[in-house]
Design brief:
Helix content is about 15%, strand content about 20%. With about 475 residues, the protein is an alpha+beta fold. The chain folds into two domains: about 120 residues, no CATH class; about 325 residues, no CATH class. Strands 6-8-7-16-15-13 form a six-stranded mixed β-barrel. Strands 3, 4, 5, 9 and 17 form a five-stranded antiparallel beta sheet that branches. Helix 1 packs antiparallel against helix 2 and helix 5 runs parallel beside helix 6. The radius of gyration is 27 Å and the shape is elongated. The chain starts with a helix and ends with a strand.
């Protein structure tokens, strides 16, 4: 009976992630557990439908000997489940045997069992960012899909595609990392921009959202991954990251192909620029390289245009990318394509790094794809990957999210590959707010790989009683 109770409790607890359907899923998971008993009267089959009572709890008392009274029916608060197995009568001959066995009190002929299990979702070394997922979103099923992430307003309701910031005070800053001892704005910037060792593992069943858009911080800090240490246009110089240019804790990715040319005082088309190193758009009619393309449906004039979420089809953009950057027309039969196996932009990015083997990504082009402003690049190519909390921002969660919010459940942590610098295209609606990324998978599936941003998420299901 105890083995059965333990198994049911663990199965149900694994679903208590704080989302609106958590208790429904926990009840369903419990039904999957079937066991058997030998010594009691009645049916030998044990099943959750007929033999147990599930009680959901928001907290446990400090002492194991105290009663578990924090009962809740709210799926957002249900962090633990208590399983009580219905009492069974033991047949006389077995009851007598148990009574005579050493270490047992007098056995009254009846037996039952109880177990308490719970779930913690531990997020380790993740960036303090969130975005609102659309209905039915599943990171593993939507790999390759492009997303236009844009900051939500202070008072407006958040909608699918809106991104925002998590409260850094909710995380435990890694005492051995580059952000140790910081607070306020500097802590925000460090947690968003550092290479690794950002946070210790912390319980992320519910995250706190910060109000405000932090547009300048967003662009300047995220763009260090592209070897850009200046503030975005219109963001104000106070939001630049110039002081990090030669700091290995804020090093760029080893591949920063982005369709811009290196700007120095000698070749700048912007006479007002005083920066020693930076990047700028090509002069008109002189586009010699391009960055990774967006889904074709985002291109102006698309037959079926996208709004915030793409469809993963970037075939036309890939043709242009190979023509501009490599001089290869992949539409020509028999034309060599060194990256034919790369189906997503992220796979192409990785293939370019492997193909270059430590050298320039692009040859005979105004940009080599290697960082030019920073003194070195991050060794891990996943430096351009963000681990972001995907949140259901709709009214179906029980509370429509506006601005700041506390203890918001996370649907899943999503790995998003940054395909271009933030605010890179001034023609975009949203300008410096625009973050373009490609879904490359879920960080909530227990993968062991270490990302350039850190980023491990673990579901820790355990028995407490």
């Amino acid at each position: 009976l105890q083995s059965f109770a333990d198994s049911v409790a663990l199965a149900a607890a694994g679903e208590l992630d704080g989302n609106s359907d958590a208790i429904t899923r926990a009840n369903a998971a419990a039904q999957l557990i079937v066991d058997s008993q030998t010594f009691a009267t009645g049916s030998q089959v044990l099943g959750a439908a007929n033999d147990v009572t599930l009680t959901y709890l928001s907290a446990l008392p400090d002492s194991d000997s105290d009663a578990t009274n924090a009962v809740t029916t709210d799926p957002a608060k249900a962090a633990f489940v208590r399983v009580d197995v219905d009492e069974r009568e033991v047949q006389g001959v077995f009851a007598a045997a148990f009574t005579t066995m050493g270490g047992y009190d007098a056995f009254d002929g009846s037996a039952t069992a109880q177990a308490v299990a719970g779930l913690e979702i531990l997020a380790c070394d993740v960036t303090p960012l969130m975005f609102c997922v659309p209905p039915g979103f599943d990171a593993e099923k939507d790999i390759g899909q492009m997303i236009l992430l844009r900051a939500g307003g202070n008072d407006a309701a958040w909608g699918p595609g809106d991104f925002g910031f998590l409260d850094p005070d909710k995380a435990k800053v890694d005492v051995n990392g580059p952000c140790a001892g910081l607070s306020g704005g500097p802590l925000d910037m460090c947690l968003l921009g550092a290479v690794s060792k950002i946070t210790q593992c912390f319980n992320s069943r519910g995250v706190d959202l910060e109000p405000g858009q932090k547009v300048g911080v967003n662009a300047a800090v995220l763009n260090v991954r592209f070897d850009i240490y200046e503030a975005a246009a219109g963001a104000g110089s106070e939001n630049s990251a110039n002081s990090w240019e030669n700091d290995p804790n804020f090093a760029p990715a080893p591949n920063v192909v982005m369709g811009k040319r290196v700007r120095t005082p000698g070749n700048s088309s912007n006479s007002s620029s005083t920066a020693n190193c930076g990047y700028e758009d090509y002069p008109e009619d002189e586009e010699l390289t391009v960055g990774l393309p967006r889904d074709d449906c985002f291109v102006s004039g698309a037959a079926e245009p996208c709004t915030r979420f793409g469809d993963g089809d970037w075939s036309q953009g890939r043709i242009t990318y190979m023509q501009k950057n490599y001089g290869i027309d992949i539409t020509t039969e028999g034309a060599p394509d060194p990256f034919a196996d790369a189906k997503t932009r992220y796979e192409l990015y990785l293939a370019e790094i492997e193909h270059a083997n430590g050298g320039a990504i692009l040859s005979d082009r105004p940009e080599s794809g290697l960082p030019r402003c920073a003194s070195s690049s991050a060794p891990n190519p996943d430096r351009r990957v963000l681990v972001v909390a995907g949140i259901d921002c709709s009214a179906s969660t029980g509370t429509e999210i506006r601005g700041a919010a506390k203890e918001v459940p996370v649907k899943e942590f999503v790995k998003i590959f940054l395909t271009e610098p933030v605010g890179a295209d001034s023609k975009d609606t949203g300008g410096a707010k625009s973050i373009w990324g490609e879904v490359i998978g879920s960080a909530s599936n227990g993968d062991q790989e270490e990302l350039g941003t850190g980023g491990m998420v673990r579901d820790v299901v355990q028995l407490y009683r």
